[in-house]
Amino acid sequence: MTGQLVRSFGPASAETAFDISSLDKGLYLVKVTHGIGRMSTMKLVKE
Questions:
Q1: Predicted TM-score of the model (pTM)
Q2: By the 8 A CB rule, do 18 and 30 touch?
Q3: Which keywords describe this protein according to UniProt (predicted)?
Q4: Cross-strand bridge partners of residue 11
């Protein structure tokens, strides 16, 4: 992992899907900001 920002998406509703088809296979850390000052980090594995 390199720690680089690979893709950024703008504000969206909770039911929005994001197209990640252009990303290479691998492990990604996804940081989600929801609400004021609330963040979650999730692991995404693209095979």
A1: 0.69
A2: no
A3: Signal
A4: none
18 CB neighbour count, 10 Å cutoff:
9
Specify the residue for token string 């692991």.
43
Q: Which residues pair with 44 in a beta bridge?
A: 28
Rounded CA-CA distance 44/20 in Å is 11
- Per-residue pLDDT averaged across 15-38, rounded? 85
How do residues 6-20 score in pLDDT, each as one tens digit?
888 777 666 678 888
d(CA 11, CA 26): 25
Three-state DSSP state, 17: coil
